[in-house]
Amino acid sequence: MSREAKARQLVERFGAKNFDYVDNEDRDIPIWRHACKAYVVGNSPRLMRKIQRLGVAVESIDSPRTPPRVWLKALRTHQYVKNVLVFVPLLTAHA
């Protein structure tokens, strides 16, 4: 669905300037043009200026950086050793 079609659907359903829209890309400007308020995810001053030129109130939603330690915990690297030990008998029993 094109952004223009999406904008038309939102206007038909809620009315012009009767909805807020959240996104982080330039290609959503046709939708923001009809929104009451625009929320930009991430810190993009260039995109925020473009939206402000449309006469739409804009607010930035920061997307915090995830520290590497959190990613390592999510990957559960401590389980890898256990998983390898499960397969060691299979690999060594090929006699």
How does this model look, in words?
The protein is elongated, with a radius of gyration of 24 Å. Helix content is 51%, strand content 15%. Helix 2 links the parallel strand 1 and strand 2 (37-41). It has helices spanning 3-14, 29-32, 45-53, 68-75, 78-92, and strands at residues 20-23, 37-41, 57-61. It has a domain at 3-61: Rossmann fold (3-Layer(aba) Sandwich), CATH 3.40.50. The chain has five helices and three strands, in the order H-E-H-E-H-E-H-H. The protein is of the alpha/beta class and 95 residues long.
Question: Which word captures the global form?
Answer: elongated
CATH architecture of one domain: 3-Layer(aba) Sandwich
| Structural class by sheet pairing and helices | alpha/beta
Q: Gap between N and C termini, in Å?
A: 59 Å
Average pLDDT works out at 89
**What is the CATH level 1 assignment of one domain?**
Alpha Beta
Nearest-angstrom radius of gyration? Answer: 24 Å
Please give a quick description of this structure.
By secondary structure, this protein is α/β, with parallel strands linked by helices.
Protein topology:
Blueprint: H1 3-14, E1 20-23, H2 29-32, E2 37-41, H3 45-53, E3 57-61, H4 68-75, H5 78-92
Parallel strand pairs: 1-2, 2-3
